[in-house]
Amino acid sequence: MVETDVILVGGGIAGAGAAYEISASHRVVVLEREAQCGYHSTGRSAASFTENYGTATIRRLALASRGFLAEPPKGFCDHPLLGRRGMITIARADQRERLAKALDTARSLVPSIVPLDPAEAIARVPVLRPDYLAACFFEPNSMDLDVDGLHQGFLRGARARGATIRTNAEVREIRRAGDLWTVETTAGIFTAPRIVNAAGAWGDVVAAMAGVAPIGLQPKRRTAFNIPAPDGMSISGWPLIDDVGAEFYFKPDAGQLLVSPADATPSEPMDAWPDDMDVAIGADRLGQATTIEVQRVSRSWAGLRTFAPDGSPVVGPDGSAPGFIWLVGQGGYGIKTASAMSRICAAFVRGEGIPGDILDRGVTEADLGPARLRPASQAPHV
């Protein structure tokens, strides 16, 4: 039996980031059911940082995370985590009104986002069809994000601070006796006064094992695929192209194009696999908006983006179970918000409130805590 201060269930970006922050003040054990951390959603990310995507809470968390991503602590990684990309959000003629509303919302939080003339968008991305593109706007500070660099930096930093990372450690049973949680896994038995549920798509499953009421998490499958770059074109400088109706997006990816139909198909927690129909839909939507005819798919994959009922993350102690802390429901935005979310989680573990710089962004405990999804929850305990 291993005794520690905090048991953290899940070794994806959420669990890794939380372990990094919490291990600065507490002994931490991370339990990951797979043979490697980040096997599921973290390892299947589109690797993009944008401040203009997700709920208002998610956008504010991204803004609060940008400083860490732009200038990580010394020794965290040996290369920049962010790379210049930019993002153009496009609209057909029938989507003009939607684009105008999206631009107003975007500029309220990110003033650097500006309208863009369709002709300029086509000059930057020559495959866009003039008869498709009616209006667009540009986010100049959208970036490529080194997901693996961030994830491994968190894990490496957590280990350096004394955290233990256990893989192949599937949770079999969770129980509480007195002031301690006991977690039985395939890698042994662990006890701690606090447990952080960072289990992603399995978040409600882990909660139920601990005798904690679920919060209604819904995993949704997202598909992506690579295709060769168009013949004779240099695509390295292209921005990410995103449809305002969330019907597709594409971006350069290691010399090829990454394309997604932006699907959100409800799923059970599982090892997600791409559906051929979703790939075909993505290829068709790409063909409508551009001159690209997909002849060959280099590879395809899928991941689960797990949402709380209101679309915002759930971070904080559960009022019904002392020492049980949620860190779930990132909805596909967990990479770009990881720094802020990790610091918030660590603050709750220490019995503190949300860090002041994140509060200044307009993020409150009421925005994040599980009580908003269960109004009858008791006052929280840590």
Question: What is the secondary structure topology, with strand pairs?
Answer:
Elements: E1 2-3, E2 6-9, H1 13-22, E3 28-31, E4 48-49, H2 56-70, E5 82-84, E6 87-91, H3 96-109, E7 114-116, H4 118-124, E8 135-139, E9 143-145, H5 147-160, E10 164-166, E11 171-177, E12 180-185, E13 188-192, E14 194-197, H6 203-209, E15 218-228, E16 240-243, E17 249-253, E18 256-260, E19 265-266, H7 276-289, E20 299-307, E21 314-317, E22 324-328, H8 338-349, H9 356-359, H10 365-368
Parallel strand pairs: 1-13, 2-3, 2-14, 3-10, 6-16, 14-22
Antiparallel strand pairs: 4-9, 5-9, 6-8, 7-8, 11-12, 12-13, 15-18, 15-19, 15-20, 16-17, 17-18, 21-22
Short note summarizing the structure:
This protein has two domains: 2-48 and 147-215 and 310-372, 3-Layer(bba) Sandwich (FAD/NAD(P)-binding domain); 87-140 and 218-307, D-Amino Acid Oxidase, Chain A, domain 2 (2-Layer Sandwich).
Structure description:
This protein has 382 residues and is of the alpha/beta class. It folds into 2 domains: 2-48 and 147-215 and 310-372, FAD/NAD(P)-binding domain (3-Layer(bba) Sandwich); 87-140 and 218-307, D-Amino Acid Oxidase, subunit A, domain 2 (D-Amino Acid Oxidase, Chain A, domain 2). It is 26% helix and 26% strand. It has 10 helices and 22 strands. Strands 6, 7, 8, 15, 16, 17, 18, 19 and 20 form a 9-stranded mixed beta sheet that branches. Strands 10-3-2-14-22-21 form a 6-stranded mixed beta sheet, with helices on both faces. Strands 1-13-12-11 form a 4-stranded mixed beta sheet, with no helix packed on it. Strand 2, helix 1 (13-22) and strand 3 form a beta-alpha-beta unit. Helix 1 (13-22) runs parallel beside helix 5, helix 1 (13-22) crosses helix 8 (338-349) and helix 2 (56-70) packs across helix 8. The longest helix is centred in the N-terminal third of the chain and has 15 residues, at 56-70. It is globular and about 65 Å long. The two termini are 23 Å apart.
